[in-house]
Amino acid sequence: MMLDDEQVLANTTSEESDLTWEKHDGDLETEMPPQRVLTYHTSRDIFQAHAALLDNVTVSLHTNPDAYRLIRAHLVTLERWHEQNTGWRIQRGSAFFRLERHLHGITPVYLDDKLKRARDFVCLSWLLWFAEKRYLAGGGRNQQFLLSQLADELQQQSKEVTGGPALDFRNQQDRYSMWRALDYLTRLGGLQTLEGEVKKWVEDAAQQESEVLYEFTPIAHSLIEALNEERVAAIADLLSRQSKQLLPSGVLPLMAQSIPPLIRAWRALLLGPVLLRYDDPEAFASLTQQAERVSDELARTFGWLLELNDDYACVVRGSSLSVGAGPALSLNGAYDHMILLLCTMFRQQVEQGEWLPDRYGCLHVSHWDIIPLFSELRQRYGSYWGATVKDSKAAELLEEVYWRMRQFGLLRGPDADGQILILPTAARYSVNYNQDLPENHPKHPQARNTKKQASTARLAFDWTAFENADSAKE
């Protein structure tokens, strides 16, 4: 339904492009860091233990025994490394480990492929509140509860809190959000189903057989224990201000300014997807000054690489990227095609002099600037994207594209005034289809069982023009 295999996006980058917005002839070779050889070896077990802590909210003996044993065996080394480089603490329970990662800025942290919408997180927050309330009331059977008890209490409590519509589980969408929150906490190991099936409640809460018996585990309390009310309030204030008006460069909560700049850089790199000079010029400058040491430390500790450009830095993990490391653009989804093509349109606006980047490599545009670009893309390439996308409204598609681009670290906004900040990471991509649609091409092409032709060429990281684009396309 989605694509003909011969219509896969092809990368048409130019080898002459450099890592900045502007083109500097003859500078490419000097900007490429020399390859370095590690002088000593770190065991693969420690690589895996570090990655397990970063890629999982919790590492439980029951759900991931191999990773749990690796962390337990190297716990002292892991704790010492985070104490020196990130300031994060490793929580240790009777049968689980958890790395307490703390935000100090606005970062699109990826959590789960099912827990996505704002209402899902509202339900998860209330679920954790309910868990902590029962924890404080005492152990034992206080950790067991019925789904109907949970629903009734959360509906009542959410009515007493201002700031958003109260939960109403007569609404099936709210029941779906609570289902996703329950499922997420269950997969973390913080919740166990003792009896019943929640799906019946989601389909019809009034069913006689819709009752479910749950029990919280110590992992649920560990999620609450790590929360710092002052830190949460500071980030919430930033998010609220950002939704009303895009924040200028270098805005950090007051409590974050007391954190050493290099530690802020380490945190941003490990949380991903990118450390922007726009967000924290001081931390970025500190990273740039100590790039060689950080690069060696990253390779020695994790087996990963540091990519450092003029306006942003990120971690390159290679082909071993895990689900916990966050989303990645692919060539298999219609929305990813839209994102890649839209980034290409952004490049063209810069090449033509219509848009100019600021001194941090960012583009300041409005939602109204992007609407005609997206309409042009849809009119030209909509037949590649499948029937589901074709029947969707343009406003709904663009809203979904914005949401995904925020997750990928490609843009921010739109804010209340429709203003959007396109980040320099969007300059990485310039793509097109292998061939244009012929006039007699069917509107909804079916995939054929033929071998895909996808380019493996290196992506370009700048907004400069591609002189060889046309010849590459041919």
Features:
single chain; Arc Repressor Mutant, subunit A; three-stranded antiparallel sheet; 11% strand; globular; 474 residues; mainly alpha
Spatially, the strands of the biggest sheet line up as 2-4-3
Strand-residue fraction? 5-15%
Determine the mean pLDDT: 80
Query: What structural class do helix, strand and pairing data support?
Result: mainly alpha
Report the principal-axis shape. Answer: globular
Give a structural overview.
The chain has 474 residues and is mainly α. The protein folds into three domains: 5-29 and 326-473, no CATH class; 43-101; 118-225, Arc Repressor Mutant, subunit A, CATH 1.10.10. It has helices spanning 28-31, 44-55, 65-73, 75-85, 118-136, 147-159, 172-188, 198-203, 218-225, 229-244, 261-271, 281-289, 291-302, 334-351, 367-381, 387-390, 394-408, 469-473; strands at 9-11, 59-60, 89-92, 96-100, 144-146, 191-195, 213-216, 275-276, 305-308, 312-316, 363-366, 411-412, 419-422, 431-433. Strand 9 (305-308) and strand 10 (312-316) form a beta hairpin. Helix 5 packs across helix 7 and helix 14 (334-351) crosses helix 15. It is globular. The two termini are 27 Å apart.
